[in-house]
Design goal:
Elements lengths: L1 H21 L12 H20 L1 H5 L8 H26 L5 H9 L17 H18 L8 H29 L3 H20 L11 H6 L7 H19 L9 E3 L4 E3 L5 H8 L6 H14 L1 H21 L1
GO molecular function: phenylacetyl-CoA 1,2-epoxidase activity
Protein name: Phenylacetate-CoA oxygenase
InterPro entries: Aromatic_CoA_ox/epox, Ferritin-like, Ferritin-like_SF, PaaA, PaaA_PaaC
């Protein structure tokens, strides 16, 4: 009897959930949700949070070497923004019943994914421009639709993140613009950075639609609003006039616009490179994780001090009551 009642309750809950999704309403932490929806959100949001945190490393590498005080303070602010994005996203994931410690352990033990793009090195100052322009540009393309994600805490976190990403994208463009309009050597440095970052930035959108196991369900749940290939198309279309403004060459020599289909025909993405990076064998995977582990160990005293202080405050309140 009880199990039949439970089943009926679950059917009613599922119908209510489906109606909210169909009606473009938001699912909130207190609402019933299918277990698979919860798991998918934890997967995507935690991967996204890890990407923001690991993503601090390639740029932090240039803080001490930025070419002027102004560039240095802009870069510090940008890296701090990424830390903030990670924190909003970890908080959004925590509303789904996973703890920050569980997510952190998964990252530092190498069990969690983070974006492939942060496993490449940044040998020159122009890389700061290419990351801002291409990587943050791709992030904006991918993340603006996530502001409408059906899960409330995720969508709301994304609104603020996207505002900051758009500042990041412009500062990257500006670095590259100055270099590409500078001396021939500076222009070469800008072109070299763009040559190295262009293809990995296309990989940020994930595998092509026919090789993406999660897209269809995530789109049905209105977590994702567009497929990986649709967003990649949009990004390429955005880059083309900007390449012209920069006076730089697009590394994809086969790129052309097909008037008939209204789509960009691109050269072949190196999916083998993509899977190597996802498997942990990219140029900087080991270094990124090692650095993250060390930072976690170095920060142990801060976590202990914060926990001791919280305990002290709790005891004080208890004795005062
Ligand atoms: N890097 C690493 N893993 C990737 C990836 C990439 N570029 N693209 C796809 N994957 C992984 C997926 O996470 C998934 O792994 P899992 O099933 O083991 O969890 C697998 O490859 C299959 O891909 P799917 O397309 O089926 O997966 P999704 O539907 O989750 O789509 C996604 C992938 C487009 C990255 C999507 O998760 C997403 O939009 N995430 C939110 C945005 C995000 O995380 N961006 C990361 C960059 S953050 C950033 O750019 C910071 C900024 O400051 C620059």
């Amino acid at each position: 009897m009880t199990s039949t009642t439970d089943e009926l309750d679950e059917v009613a809950e599922q119908q209510r959930f489906d109606a909210l999704i169909a009606d473009e309403q938001r699912i909130e932490p207190r609402d019933w949700m299918p277990e698979a929806y919860r798991r998918t959100l934890i997967r995507q949001i935690s991967q996204h949070a890890h990407s923001e945190i690991i993503g601090m490393q390639p740029e932090a590498n240039w803080i001490t070497r930025a070419p002027s005080l102004k560039r240095k303070s802009i870069l510090i602010a940008k890296v701090q923004d990424e830390a903030g994005h990670g924190l909003y996203l970890y908080s959004a994931a925590q509303t789904l019943g996973i703890t920050r410690e569980e997510m952190t352990d998964a990252l530092i033990e190498g069990r969690a994914r983070y974006s492939s793009i942060f496993n490449y090195h940044t040998p020159t100052w122009a890389d700061m421009g290419a990351i801002g322009w291409l990587v943050d540009g791709a992030a904006i393309c991918n993340q603006v639709p996530l502001c409408r994600a059906s899960y409330g805490p995720y969508g709301r976190a994304m609104v603020r993140i996207c505002k900051e990403e758009s500042f990041h994208q412009r500062q990257g463009f500006e670095i590259l613009y100055e270099l590409s309009h500078g001396t021939p050597e500076q222009k070469r440095m800008a072109q070299d950075a763009v040559d190295r970052w262009y293809w990995p930035s296309l990989m940020m959108f994930g595998p092509s639609d026919d090789a993406s196991p999660n897209s269809a369900q995530s789109m049905a749940w209105k977590i994702k609003r567009f497929s990986n290939d649709e967003l990649r198309q949009r990004f390429v279309g955005m880059c083309v006039p900007q390449f012209e403004a920069l006076g730089l060459e697009c590394p994809d020599r086969d790129l052309r616009y097909d008037e008939e289909t209204g789509r960009w025909i691109m050269g072949e993405i190196d999916w083998n490179e993509f899977s190597e990076v996802l498997a942990g064998r990219g140029p900087a995977n080991a270094e990124r994780l090692r650095h993250r582990r060390e930072a976690h160990d170095d920060g142990a005293w801060v976590r202990e001090a914060a926990a001791a202080y919280a305990q002290k405050m709790q005891d004080r309140r208890r004795f005062a009551a």
